[in-house]
Amino acid sequence: MNLKPRRLGLFAVLCSLVLAVAVTARPDRSFEISPAEAKEIRNFVRLLEEAHYNREAVEPASYQGIIRAFMEDWDAHHLFFLEADATQFAEKYGEGLYWNVSSLGNINPAFDIFERYEELAEIRASWIFERLQGEFDLESDDHYTVDRRELDWPASAAEADALWEMRLRFELIQELLNEQELDEAKEKIRKRYERMLKNLADIETHEVTEVFLTNIAQLYDPHSTYFSADTYEDFSIQMRLQLVGIGALLGLEDDECVIREIIPGGPADLDSRLKPNDRIIAVSQSADPEAENVELIGMKLRKIVDLIRGEKGTDVFLTIQPADHPDPSARQKIRLTRDVVNLDSARARGAIFEVPNDTGDLRPIGVITLPAFYGPSPGETDANPASASGDVSLLIEEMLARGIDGLVLDLRGNGGGLLSEAIDLTGLFIEQGPVVQVRSYYGDIKVDNDDDESVRYAGPLAVLVSRYSASASEIVAGALQNYGRAVVLGDSSTHGKGTVQTVYEMRNLDPRLRLTDAKTGAAKFTIQKFYLPSGSSTQLNGVVPDIVLPSIDDVMESGERFLPQALVWDEIETAEFDGSPLGLHILSPLLDASHTRQQTLTEFDFLQRNIAWFTARQEEESVSLNLDERIAQRDADKRFREAMDEERKLLQNQNFDFTEFMLTHPEQDGITAVEVVDPTVADEDLLTPEEDLLMAETSDEKTVPEPADDEATADAETELAETETPAEDPEPEGYARLDIHLREAMRVLVDAVEIGRQPQFAERLPLTVHPSTGG
User: Fold this and answer.
1) What is d(CA 166, CA 131) in angstroms, rounded to the nearest whole number?
2) Are strands 461-465 and 445-450 parallel, antiparallel or unpaired?
3) Three-state DSSP class for residue 499
4) For residue 768, what is the DSSP state?
5) What is the DSSP letter of 553?
6) Which of 564, 558, 484, 496 has its CA nearest to residue 529?
7) Low-confidence winner among 291-305, 431-445, 455-469, 599-613 (lowest mean pLDDT)
8) Which of 124, 122, 136, 134 is nearest to 170 (CA)?
9) Which residue has the higher pLDDT, 511 or 397?
10) Rounded Cα gap, residues 372 and 261, in angstroms
11) Residues 536-560: b if buried by 16+ CB within 10 A, e if exposed
12) Is the distance from CB of 328 to CB of 561 less than 8 angstroms?
């Protein structure tokens, strides 16, 4: 294909001329709020001031920062506004903003800023349509900074034009690198900004209000937000209904659609190609090359969701910018079949691996993967609904019957769920005692205990975590670490989401509205913080593993600490419990053995080279605007990834043999033992070898969302079915994938078993409960 520039076709020129004239038409609308809405705004501010956990941190002067934050909600990369706009709005509205909003319910500054943005966007679109008629130098040595969030807005119109000159060259090269001819690339860019204007024209008063009030809420912390009446109605419907789609939580970031989380058991999870932080660039309803591929930039999240949802069994085609690829031009096209969540696929599952020790003897090590802390929903009618703790108990029973020497609890990607299930699940591995402490703003501390003295599994235990282990997962991992019951392995820390939110409908603050059917908005805000038995909060710092494994997740800006206004880490008094963290006499030999393997094993060298490549590319602050250079870089990246893929296939052949156990409905067949030997290679990238299985539904949040409070459950009774990935399957999934972190966790458990043979461990083996309590 010829990637060199060609002259713009006559049709594209005529279309650009027509649009350059038509773009000046402004939508016929006005932004204003009713007296009832003004009162709701005042009540919203009062609610945050009186009930938010972090209320003392926000003062009237804090509101001045909202002006710039609100501007950046529309213009995150500082492309449309001028620096003079920021100065003017700050001087005009900043000082008196708090009093206008809190006393009068006046948010006119929000409407003035949005109207200015819309005006500048229309002016810029006209400039773009005209500029696309000309020629572009794609052979220069210029570079363009893609992420401009930390840079200033242009100081003048001329500086803005120069910036956009480079921006257009950047966008043209993006399209040329994705098999577009120059005329096609220009046409695609023209349509992009035409759609941007249409999306802006569709913005309504309640949407501007929602964005502005969410900025107020996020002065307090990143998990607080405001729902307009329409958004709250959608939110409530989603909590009650089972929707058909791809099974992913979507969010907006810098005007782009981002995958926040993957719902366990949904189409995206079962397909396994979509990952958290991937960006959906475009959506099509057909594989036909002539079918419209709708770009999503600037589109409202509700419209994006409507494009992706559809009838069960129908296909949707997504164009993805992968999060694990540092080149912004990288694209991946994924076909998914819409469906409801497969609840059995979302449940705990397990396997027994045959893991060699240093002498080559095989040790049976169990692995239980838990995607979420699910349990009975409110109003559950099933006599025996499925639960995370119940399912894990069933898997433990089967594994104990088969004589496992150790157990890995895999919580990677588990975004949380029911706190009660986290407590019950922790109780499977410890005697009775505190699991989590919950503190309110007033200092009241509630200690949640495991009151069951029985221990379901008393043997050597490891917990595997990642940056995407959040909330309830962090409580379980941290509590087991506090008790010295397990060795924790994984990324350098878990997510760090140690807060509790509630949703409060605004009508409840107005006695008269409570008696009517009037629709109001709602506030979601933080009311409590989690603390471990030791008194250490899981907020911000998360749980730091005993053994840290190299991970590409640690290179990405992922986790609570990267969210603006995140609440601080702190600690309270230690609860009384019978336990202590692992002593050095146990941890040191495990650390030493793991570090030696990380320095010597081929698979860790493979992983480190992937991380080093990604890190080097990620640290590049700008990209070349020379087409030949970008083609060379693209081809070099492709060669590197293909070489890594070949290495991964070789490493795949070294996977430990395993037998897998799946939870099934009672009407299905029971256990049919099949051993998996030398599973074949999955056609996936191993830049993120840790499987990310997260739970959620659609959301309008612009931050990493906290886990849902509830999850749907499967039918009453449960049986175990033992399955395999056949050797002839060209794309093995689940445990058949190359999983370096899981392999190392199992090796560490084998080390613990071997260490336990030493005389000093005669009374209690490492990572176990006292023998008198075992079960």
Assistant:
1) 12
2) unpaired
3) strand
4) -
5) G
6) 496
7) 291-305
8) 136
9) 397
10) 12
11) bbbbbbbbbbbbbbbbbbbbbebbb
12) no
